[in-house]
Amino acid sequence: MDAVNGYDFKRNKYMPVFPRATGKPTVYIEGYPSEDDEPMAATGFHGVQIRTFSDQLARYFNTESSVYIGIDSFIYYYEGDRTKFVAPDIYIVLGVEKYPERRSFYTWAEGAVPTVVFEFLSDSTAAQDRGAKLRQYLLDIGVAEYFIHQPEGDKPPEFRGWRRSPSGEIEGIPPDAEGGLFSQSLNLWLRWEDYIGNVRLLRPYLPDGTPIPTSAEEVQLREEAETRAQQAELAAQQEAHRRQQVELELEQLRTQLAALEEERS
Length: 265
Known about the structure:
With 265 residues, this protein is of the alpha+beta class. It has two domains: 3-213, tt1808, chain A; 214-265. It is 37% helix and 20% strand. It has six helices and twelve strands. The protein has helices at residues 3-14, 44-60, 107-110, 126-130, 132-141, 215-264, and strands spanning 67-71, 75-76, 85-86, 90-94, 105-106, 116-120, 145-149, 159-164, 170-172, 181-183, 188-195, 199-205. A six-stranded mixed beta sheet has the order 1-4-6-7-8-9. The protein has a three-stranded mixed beta sheet with strand order 3-2-5. It has a three-stranded antiparallel beta sheet with strand order 10-11-12. Strand 10 and strand 11 form a beta hairpin. The chain is elongated.
C-alpha cells in the first residue's frame, strides 16, 4: 500500500463520529456585523500558522460534508444580543454543513456551537487567550475543547489545552512526554515543530502518529507515488522483455540442437 492510499485508509479509520446539527446553514443575519477594522493575522507568524494549520484541517476533513472550519470570523452565540460574539483564529464545528460559506456563524440558527477552538498567542491577545476566553469559550458558549499556541519562535514555547469535563467543569488536557496534546473531539494528536522562518508550527497527527499533510506535502506524496508506480511499471516491462529474450534464445538453441541431431541421423 503506497503512502497516499495508506493515509486515505487511516483517515477514514480514525475520522471522528458526530451527530448532525439541528439547524441549517445561515450565511448572514441582518443586524449582526460580520467584519471589523482588525487585520486577519496579528503578525506574520500568525499568518503562516493559520494558513498552514487551516490547510491541514481542510485537507483532513475534505471528504466530510458536515464539518465547517471557520477562520477569524465572528461567532454570535446569544440570539438578540450582537455584543455576544468572539472571533477565534480557527474553529471547527462538527455536524453542520460545510457549504455555503458563512459571513459569520450564528449558533442558534445552525443548532450547534464550535466543537474545538484554536487561538495563537500574540502580545495583544495572550492575556485574554489564557484568561477570559477560557471560560467564555468552554462555559459561556459550550465549546468542547480549547487550545492556545505560541507560533513566534523567539518567544518561549507555550502549547496548552482544556476541555469540559462530563460534569461541565474546565479541566486541563494532560500533555504526553513530548508535549503533545490529544483532542478527543477530533481524534487527533496536536504537536508543534520548528519551521523555516522562525515559526513554531502547530500540526495535527492521526492517533497512530501519521502526520496530516499540507496541500504541498500531499502533492509531493502523490508525485512520489506516481514516480514509484512508473518505476515499478518500467521494471515490470524490462523483466518481461528479459523473459522474452530468454525464451527467444532457448528457442534458437532448441532449433540448433534439432538441426544437429538431424545431421547425425
